[in-house]
Amino acid sequence: MAVDLGRAGIWSRELRYHPDRGANAAAAAELEELGYSAIFIPDAGGDVLSVVTELLAATRHIRFATGVLNIWMHDAAEVARRQALTAEAIATGEPMVKRERGPTID
After folding, report:
1. In contact, 61 and 31? CB cutoff 8 Å
2. N or C, where is the chain less crowded by C-beta within 10 Å?
């Protein structure tokens, strides 16, 4: 399946590993406002899917790509489950953070 990532994307190790997740979300939103069409983040260990979920929640239209998932660190069934939740949330417009963490207070 080919995915159109647009014309101008950015690769960022910092959006993946910087400890200030609020700053990461704000940076992703700003990159989207600046016109970038995709953000690429590496996967060299840890929970990359939670990072993507947080960045998706902070943006509206930008696309995300990860490095190749390490098969020794990510359970295939869990990756499939989370991908399905992500696809469903995108299709319905439901906020990602609410979908992954349960109800939130607006």
Report:
1. no
2. N
